[in-house]
Amino acid sequence: VVVKDGMTFEQFLAKCSDKLKLPEKKFTRCFYISNAAEVDDPDDLMPDDKLFVSEGEDFKKKSTEGMLSSGLNAIASGTSYVYSKTTDFAKAQMSEETRKQFEDAEAKAAEKLAPIVDKIKETTAPAVEWTDKKLEVAADTVSEKKKEFMASETGQYLQNQVYAPTAEKSKELFAITCTELEKMGEKSKGSMTSAQEYMKNVKEKMGKEWDEKYAPAVKQMYEQAKVAGQQTGEALKVQTENLKKNWNEQVEPVLKEKMAALNTKPAK
C-alpha cells in the first residue's frame, strides 16, 4: 500500500482492504508483525514494514519456535540454570586458588565442547524442524476435531449437561469454602483456626453436597489461604487466582463424574 502525504488512518485501512481484494472487510486496527505494536498513524510507516490488519481483534505474534524446539530450549535453559546455581554455591566454598583452577577447567571444557554442540545442532536441526511441523499440523488437526466433536449432538449434550453444570457447581462450592474462611478469620480476630475445624465447618455448610474426594482441595485451600493472608497487592491477586485454579483442577473431575452419572446419554 502506498501511503500518501496527508492520508488518514481510515483511508489507509480502506486501501488495505483494496490491496487484499477484500472490499467487504472493514478493518479498524493495524499492527507491526515484527513486534505486535499497534499502528495508529500511517505517516509512521516505513516501506519495508510488514503489517497485520484486523476488524478489531488483537494481533498475537506466533512463536518462531516449534513445540519440540521450544521444549528442547527450555530443557537446556533449565539445565544450565541448575548447573550455574550449583557451581556458584560450590565456588563460594572454595579457596581463591581452587576456584581459579575450577573456572579454568570450565573454560577449557566449554571451548572443546562448543564445536561439538554446534555440529549436533546443525545435524539435528532439519529433524527438529520436520518434527515441529508435524506437531503443528497434529495440534491443528486435534483442535479442529475437538471443534467438530463439540458441535455434534454428543458434544452439545456434554457441554450442556456435564461441563457447564460442573463449572457452575464448582464455583458454588468454592464460594462456600471462601465464606467459611472469612467467617473463621472474623471469629478468630486475625489468627487462623485449625485445619480440622475449617474442614468440619465446610462439611457442615455443604451438607449433602459434600464428598470426601473434596477433602484434599479443601485442605490445600486452607494452606494457601494462610499464605495469601500475609500478602498484599499484586501478590495477593496472583495467590487468589491460584486458589481458584487449584480448586477447579481438583474438584471439577469429581463433579464431572457426578454429573455424568446423573444424566443418561440421549438416544441417537
Protein architecture, described:
By secondary structure, this protein is mostly helical. The chain is 69% helix and 4% strand. The chain has helices spanning 9-19, 67-92, 96-151, 153-187, 195-206, 215-228, 233-262, and strands at 29-32, 38-39, 51-54. The longest helix has 56 residues, at 96-151. It is extended, with a radius of gyration of 28 Å. The model has no long low-confidence stretch (mean pLDDT 76).
Keywords, please?
268 residues, mainly alpha, 3-stranded antiparallel β-sheet, 7 helices, 3 strands
Task: Spell out the blueprint of helices and strands.
Blueprint: H1 9-19, E1 29-32, E2 38-39, E3 51-54, H2 67-92, H3 96-151, H4 153-187, H5 195-206, H6 215-228, H7 233-262
Antiparallel strand pairs: 1-2, 1-3
Helix pairs in contact: 2-3, 3-4, 4-5, 4-7, 5-6, 6-7
Q: Oligomeric form of this entry?
A: single chain
Strand residues, percent = under 5%
Gap between N and C termini: 54 Å
Q: pLDDT under 50 segments (min length 5)?
A: none
Which series of helices and strands comes N to C?
A: HEEEHHHHHH
Widest sheet, order of strands? 2-1-3
DSSP E strands, number = 3
Proportion of helical residues: 55-70%
Shape: extended
Residue-averaged pLDDT, rounded?
76
The main sheet comes to: 3 strands, antiparallel
- The radius of gyration over CA amounts to 28 Å
Count of DSSP H/I helices: 7
Structural class, please?
mainly alpha
Would you summarize the structure shown here?
The chain is mainly α.
